[in-house]
Amino acid sequence: EQARELVADYDAALHQALEETSPLYEVDNGLFWVSNFEIAAPMEFHHFLTALGHGSGQRRTLDRAHTSPKAVEQIVAEAEEALISSDSSMEPARRAGELVYSKWLQASSMPVKAVVANALMSHGLMVSVDVYQSDKLLPDYVNSP
Prior knowledge:
Helix content: 55-70%
Strand content: under 5%
Distance between the termini: 42 Å
Radius of gyration: 20 Å
Number of helices: 8
Oligomer: single chain
């Protein structure tokens, strides 16, 4: 019964969308996380960016279409320092960041829930549900030399 409760909120579309961002990790770590957060918690992530100052009245981030890689490090460091400080003006960004990460943690459980759901279905303990299955990221041990 507890295993069925665990997989009750499984979302195959969310699972697939998150898995499709995996190749981005090899390209750029930041791009991977932005994509994951936009999928798992789009409204909360937008609120976090707004509260951080991107497009808001606080102007903690510069209003530019492009920022040099050297400047990005400084901007991120300043934002991180502001977030961990006791500055009360950053409280909306802190709360939004916690919501984003909380929703992402919940979403990141989808692959495990898919495995549990498949195990329950294969043993006749659960009626069939749509489970996203992709082996493209797994090594091919069958044809390995």
